[in-house]
Amino acid sequence: MVILQEKVNPFMDNKSFLLYGANGYSGQLIAALAKEYGLQPILAGRRKEALAPMAEALQTNYHVVDLDDTAALTSILQTVPLVLHAAGPFKHTAQQMIEICLQTQTHYIDITGEIVVYELAKSYNAAAVAAGIMIMPGVGFDVVPTDCLALLLKNMLPDATELHLAFASIGGGLSHGTALTMAEGMGEKSAERKDGKIIQVPLGKKGMWVDFGLKKLFVMSIPWGDISTAYTTTGIPNIRTYTGISKKVYRLLKFQFLFNWLLRTSFMRKRQINKIKNQPAGPSASKRANSKGLVWGEVRNATGTIVRARLIGPDGYTLTAHSSLLIAKKILEGNFTPGYQTPAGCYGADLILEVPGVSREIL
User: Which residues pair with residue 167 across a beta bridge?
Assistant: First the structure.
């Protein structure tokens, strides 16, 4: 256990942290829930008109700062022990924040699900150890529940050589941030891990039916963050990840390779981004309350032994707010390991059971 280094702000305590991207959909949920965890978020982002009323309602401070304003961001991070980064797509925003966190000895966590960001964060491991800070991307639905399930299964079958993880939702919806990240991936290939290496494969290369407990759903393979993180957590060399999708849409996606060149054009991506911005910021509170997040996992060893387990919990955005704050609280209390870490790798397979409304079943 490492004692947090004292920062320059004499009024700071182990309840305060910087929430960057606080005015985004997930950021607002995190900020509103923080009080339940005894935490005080200091709001940050680029738009004063969005941050000021939030800060007044939550009776907290805020900073208007752009990620590219290195001097201003450095000055702010020198006053806090931890930043919870919630402004994506993170492939455009994570590196700037991580590098300043290393300079200011500020712990870094975020809510990404992007493989490239996990691999980037992993490359800063030695620097983070030297700085005495922890770097942990993916403290939300991406990838806390799947990472915890992966470790549980690995512990049950230590010689596992294959890991399959699937997630789906019942009654859920997408936020602008999630949708924008997906739009930027239009026309791109998927990924999986084979013999320890990340390789490119067609999107939806594999499809299958999964019994999630509440419902049996069709899923297809996608490039989920566990392609990176689950390998770090478990060491299992072959990993594939899936998400729920309509069987009809899945059949159509089989022909997507014919149009990938078009989907990758700036015209098509800008068109999709404009459509997203004209939609609601994310699912309503009532929709989230009536939604469930479902996770399923399976491991196999060389002799064909199979172990399966599944989770049922709140919708992904609600889970993200809880899990990110749970982890933030642990870090602020001095419970962290310097360097690059994964959620389950640092806090164990039962971390997910600390999230309200989550139940787990071994099959």
Answer: 243, 295
- Can you give the residue range of the structural domain that contains 176? 144-317
For strands 16-20 and 40-45, give the pairing.
Answer: parallel
DSSP 8-class letter at 4: P
Q: How confident is the model at residue 357 (pLDDT cuts 50, 70, 90)?
A: very high
Quick one: 163 and 311 in the same domain?
yes
- Are the CB atoms for 113 and 241 separated by under 8 Å? no
For residues 92-96, average pLDDT = 96
The CATH number covering residue 169 comes to 3.30.360.10
Residue with tokens 């200091």: 42
pTM of the entire predicted model = 0.88
Phi, psi of 284 (to 5 degrees): -70, 165
Residues 249 and 276 reside in one and the same domain? yes
267, 255: one domain: yes
Q: Using CA atoms, how far apart are residues 362 and 351, in angstroms rounded to an integer?
A: 16
Number of domains in the chain: 2
**Which pLDDT does position 177 carry in this prediction?**
41
Instruction: Tell me if residue 361 falls in helix, strand or coil.
Output: strand
Alpha-carbon span 62 to 16, nearest angstrom: 12
Q: Are strands 107-110 and 82-85 parallel, antiparallel or unpaired?
A: parallel
User: What does the alpha-carbon distance between residue 141 and residue 111 come to, in Å, rounded to a whole number?
Assistant: 8
124-143: string of b/e by CB count within 10 Å (b at 16+)? beebbeebebbbbbbbbbbb
